[in-house]
């Protein structure tokens, strides 16, 4: 079963070189949330850096960057990797077609891999939790008061049309992304960046509303595109939110070579790519072409891989990995299966209980619904014992709250004690367990008691409230993933029936499903919040009260909590690693004890099946997505 590929499909740890925040944005709520994660993970400045003006090739959140100024390449690449060949891939997410090349607007589905065309002023390392190195910028100057950051643009930086990347282009990108023409999240992300000022043709300064150590990195991670994108031959301009199949003018290593009917697209490596010799690009983007083929559903996609129609499959379904990713081509070695360890935080995946629905307003009801999920049975029967249960929004990292709250956490929590669950101040709860001596029966009895306390009792063949209304809700899914999740949802529904609860599983077309999510028009659905190594502004989009009322935001939970908002302010304003950890721990405690999601499961490996002939560096990155690593770091060992 999936480790987390659902609505937020591109878990991207920070803004690392091999992670392109815009490559899978579909103009939807969830993919924008993925982008929020990328922006929010940008590395904040260390206290020493923030206290003095200084120009640098790289910055680190704490201490110094791993790589010195004269470094030649990252340790996890092969600088001598051969180049050439065409890498063929399938749908990287649930989209089965695309209708635009613009990944920065709300409507429509952007082409897969489109992030290969765009770059930012700075990029990150995949073997450091928080570091950033110049990309389009060759110099970063943080003001002594922390209220602005100046970037000098590399004089060699070029767009795909041959134009130099200029300060005007950076300002145009910033102003456009903050405008109503772009997806509304961008304005929220950059809300504390007041303006972008052109200092000279090769220098821009971003000015901030307040001193916030994250803001210089948010500015540095902004995607940059040419101000000529959308300008027609007669000089008139197509409105940014109307750009569809007008090819973007970016500075990335690839260009669009061809596409067909919204189902296939081929990117060709730019022979004049300006950044080829940069230390952050040595050993990367080795394929001459990258071609995406979009299949109608997961079954068709898997069978196409086994038939040899594309080169690599990132397998998120445990059952497939064990039972279906087999056959003659695997036996002969033509197709190979490997598991690659990673150190990503695993994010949070689970059933979201939409707090906009009064049905889920009582924490006792939400906890009862959590008790009805039998993970141990699912792991044995469906997952082949490949997973662990998620019990934190920051599992597999030091950001997961454990034990009793520290003094720093209590400083954030105590002012809100009267509004928080008493359990917030204790040891974080573990998820229900049905392995002996535990049992599903015991869990359901506890759930029944909680429901009764909340005013729900069984009578006349159903669980009803005092008004006699039955407990009924809908679990929403899209047609592209229903085959994956139905085996999970069906036994969960049976368990709920034992409590007198009627849960209806509804499947719909992906595009309609996304519109429903954008409008928050759902009861329950499956969501994955992607991993993040350094939480920041992404948490505001995901859990902040204001975002709960913004259509298409990342706050699909619908959470509106003054306590959470207060903790989020402390998180974003943290000046030390200790302050950051305390604020994230406090946030984790509130969320876990609020039972706003029914957590699923996770794995600490990437499962990849691929054709013989593909190769990868000997040293693995620490923080990476499988597909991003393949497209940016792998190569063909044999001639293609």
| Class by alpha and beta content | alpha+beta
How many DSSP H or I helices? Answer: 18
Q: What overall form do the CA principal axes indicate?
A: globular
Helical amount: 25-40%
Q: Mind telling me the CATH superfamily name of the largest domain?
A: Periplasmic binding protein-like II
The figure for the number of domains is 2
Describe, in short, the structure shown:
This protein is an alpha+beta fold and 640 residues long. The chain is built from 18 helices and 28 strands. The relative contact order is 0.18.
Description:
- There is one protein chain.
- By secondary structure, this protein is α+β, with helices and mostly antiparallel strands.
- The protein has two domains: 29-340 and 604-636, D-Maltodextrin-Binding Protein, domain 2 (3-Layer(aba) Sandwich), CATH 3.40.190.10; 348-436 and 507-602, Dipeptide-binding Protein, Domain 3 (Dipeptide-binding Protein, domain 3).
- Helices cover 26% and strands 20% of the residues.
- Helix 9 (363-371) runs antiparallel to helix 12 (440-453).
- The longest helix is centred in the last third of the chain and has 18 residues, at 577-594.
- The protein starts with 28 loop residues before the first helix and ends with a strand.
- 55% of the residues are buried.
- Mean pLDDT is 88; it is low at 1-54.
- Pfam families: SBP_bac_5.
- Residues 134-543 form the Solute-binding protein family domain.
- Keywords: Signal.
């Amino acid at each position: 079963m999936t480790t987390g590929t659902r609505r937020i499909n591109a878990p991207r740890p920070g803004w690392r070189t091999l992670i392109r925040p815009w490559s899978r944005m579909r103009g939807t709520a969830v993919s924008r949330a993925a982008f929020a994660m990328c922006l929010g993970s940008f590395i904040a400045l260390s206290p020493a850096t923030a206290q003095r003006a200084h120009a640098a090739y790289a910055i680190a959140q704490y201490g110094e960057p791993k790589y010195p100024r004269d470094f030649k390449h990252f340790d996890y690449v092969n600088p001598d990797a051969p180049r050439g060949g065409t890498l063929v891939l399938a749908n990287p997410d649930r989209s089965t077609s695309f209708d635009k090349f613009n990944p920065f607007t709300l409507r429509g589905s952007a082409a897969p891999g489109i992030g290969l065309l765009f770059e930012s002023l700075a990029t990150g390392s995949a073997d450091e939790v928080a570091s950033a190195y110049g990309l389009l910028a060759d110099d970063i100057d943080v003001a002594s008061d922390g209220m602005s950051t100046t970037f000098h643009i590399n004089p060699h930086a070029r767009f795909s049309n041959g134009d130099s990347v200029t300060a005007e282009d950076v300002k145009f990108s910033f102003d456009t992304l903050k405008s109503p023409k772009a997806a509304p999240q961008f304005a929220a992300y950059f809300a504390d960046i007041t303006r972008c000022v052109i200092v000279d043709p090769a220098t821009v300064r971003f000015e901030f509303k307040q001193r916030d150590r994250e803001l210089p990195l948010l500015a540095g991670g902004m995607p940059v595109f040419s101000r000529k994108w959308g300008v027609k031959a007669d000089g008139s301009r197509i409105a940014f939110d109307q750009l569809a199949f007008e090819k973007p003018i970016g500075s990335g290593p690839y260009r669009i070579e061809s596409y067909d009917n919204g189902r296939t697209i081929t990117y060709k490596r730019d022979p004049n790519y300006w950044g080829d010799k940069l230390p952050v690009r040595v050993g990367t983007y080795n394929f001459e072409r990258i071609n995406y083929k979009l299949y109608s559903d997961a079954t068709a996609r898997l069978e196409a891989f086994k038939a040899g129609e594309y080169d690599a499959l990132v397998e998120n379904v445990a059952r497939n990995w064990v039972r279906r990713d087999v056959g003659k081509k695997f036996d002969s070695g033509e197709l190979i299966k490997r598991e690659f360890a990673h150190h990503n935080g695993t994010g949070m995946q689970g059933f979201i209980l939409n707090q906009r629905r009064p049905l889920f307003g009582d924490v006792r009801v939400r906890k009862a619904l959590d008790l009805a999920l039998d993970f141990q049975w699912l792991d044995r029967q469906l997952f082949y014992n490949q997973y662990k249960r998620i019990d934190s929004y920051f599992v597999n990292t030091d950001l997961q709250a454990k034990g009793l709250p520290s003094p720093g956490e209590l400083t954030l929590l105590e002012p809100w004690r009267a509004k928080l669950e008493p359990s917030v101040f204790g040891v974080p709860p573990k998820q229900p367990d049905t392995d002996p001596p535990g049992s599903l029966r015991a869990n359901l009895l506890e759930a029944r008691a909680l429901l009764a306390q909340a005013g729900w009792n069984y009578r006349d063949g159903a669980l009803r409230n005092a008004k006699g209304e039955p407990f009924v809700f809908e679990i929403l899914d899209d047609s592209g993933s229903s085959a994956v999740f139905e085996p999970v949802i069906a036994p969960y529904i049976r368990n709920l029936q034992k409590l007198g609860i009627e849960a209806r599983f509804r499947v719909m077309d992906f595009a309609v499903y996304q519109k429903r999510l954008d409008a928050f028009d759902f009861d329950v659905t499956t969501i994955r919040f992607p991993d993040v190594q350094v939480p920041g502004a992404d948490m505001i989009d995901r859990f902040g009260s204001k975002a709960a009322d913004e259509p298409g935001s990342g706050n699909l939970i619908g959470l509106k909590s003054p306590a959470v908002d207060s903790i989020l302010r402390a998180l974003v304003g943290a000046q030390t690693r200790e302050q950051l950890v305390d604020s994230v721990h406090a946030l984790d405690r509130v969320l876990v004890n609020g039972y706003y999601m029914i957590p699923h499961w996770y794995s600490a490996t990437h499962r990849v099946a691929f054709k013989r002939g593909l190769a990868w560096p000997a040293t693995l990155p620490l923080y990476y997505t499988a597909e991003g690593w393949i497209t940016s770091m792998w190569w063909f060992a044999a001639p293609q």
